[in-house]
Amino acid sequence: MKILLLMPDAHMHKLKIGPHVRSMREAPLSLTTLAALTPELENLEIRIVDGSVDPIPMDAEADLVGISVITGTANTAYQLADHYRRRGIPVVLGGVHVTILPGEALHHADSIVLGMAERTWPRLIEDFRQGKLARVYRDEAPPDGILHGVPTPRRDLIRKSGYMMPNSLHATRGCKRICDFCTVPVVWPQYFKRPVGDVVADIKSIPSRYICFNDVSLVDDLEYSKELFSAMIPLKKKWGGLATVEVAKHPELLRIMQESGCAYLLLGFESVNQTSLRDIHKGFNKSTEYKSVMTTLHDHGISVQGCFVFGLDEDDRNVFQHTVEQVLELQVDIPRYSIYTPYPGTALFKRLSSEGRILSFNWDDYDTMHVVYQPSKMTPDELYAGFKWAYKETFRMKNVLRRVVRCDLNSVINLVGNLTYRIFVKRLYSERRFATPYSKDDPRMAPADDAWFNSFELHAFERKEGTKERFVQDASVLSEIMS
Ligand code: B12
User: Which of 19, 142, 186, 208 has CA atoms 20 to 30 A from the CA of 375?
Assistant: First the structure.
């Protein structure tokens, strides 16, 4: 039996050297985990193709195709699914977007998997072999909150050279916080932890010294994190992962993290305005404490990728310059900016759609790099232009050098991270997909000079593809099928 597992190109940061493509991010675990969950069968062949790093084989032979879907890749995933189904190959769709909008996904799949696949995927394969594939598989969350049976991912099935961080793993799923823009609490309503022994076994299977955690919130359970990081000390790895700024409040935890080899953390600062933080349900971030968070982490040899969001309801045209100044002042090692994006299923989506402020229901634009809603104190064009300006300003060479030379221990991480974003800034100004809301032929797209940025010229923009009506209709399909 031949199983083809696919992930569409998410158009993220990449390095292209001739024909070779390398994603400047972590290797996703979705497909390698599914491959590891597949029961051992005679003549089983599993192939994984991540469209972000390799071309999707449109004419591949397969008995079953599985596609992992996030919102920003949903349209492409559906096109791929339609293609393989036209070729007579059954298609299974799964992943966060399918879990949130199953009705929409069902239009394009023989079967869909909602939530985690640890228990449903082996059952689905067995049903498929018996010719009894069900339309919908839904996992029940483990009642004790412990993720038993997550296998060590089949990293042998990915092209390791395709990723800056190929040795990814995870210890937890979900997050205890409910920020208004985040999909995670919608998909995983609880905070789940793998037994520490399983995670340690997973780490031991990785020959490299460098590993990264894909968890959305690695330090939500203090006791668990301490136990995990203590168990990692003898393994002598260098690692990175995601955390909340609250990590800096726990000296004992930080000491263990440092000893276990923590080299970098991605932190969601989101905003330097406390009212905005409260509005997005992230008031536990205290903007006045950001400086001490950065100092504390630097003192522990930890580099910080700091994320900020533009377009919150309190944000006006001044937010871009103010944030850029703060980012430099705070000495964030690798800054990252996003545009506030109402992912379906989130509280933000519900609010903006009830206020009639969502401008685009085209999922291609849901990549946090396009404006899909009407901001409250700016026009969409002002927000988009300001976002680009902030990136360009932050990654000017003089600013990059300031960040890179400052921290000697982690200067390689900082250098690679900063250069990656400099390449991204070039793409922001040259690639057609980032030209919206302006067309490529618009004279304002060509010069990336400050005069243009400061002018903030406006013109109306409204994406025509995808309408609210169609989206609402699609979402109701599931209930029909289930009833
Ligand atoms: C690696 C990663 C990526 C990778 C690949 C993502 C992918 N899956 O295609 C890349 C770098 C491309 C990426 C990009 C982005 N990402 Co991302 N990413 C992650 C991250 C950190 C880890 C994914 C992972 O390995 N999870 C662990 C595995 C085991 O879980 P899983 O993927 O959910 O898979 C399980 C089930 O869902 C299911 N399943 C999944 N796929 C399939 C397929 C089939 C056939 C079946 C049967 C089952 C199944 O089975 C698995 C085992 O239980 C997650 C956060 C997280 N921890 O999940 C965010 C996450 C997926 N990303 C997110 C976001 C917002 C983004 C970005 C917009 C942000 C950014 N700037 O980075 C961009 C999107 C770009 C675009 N064009 O859309 C959101 C998704 C929001 C949404 N509604 O789509 C998440 C959930 C983070 C968050 N805090 O909200 N990301």
Answer: 186
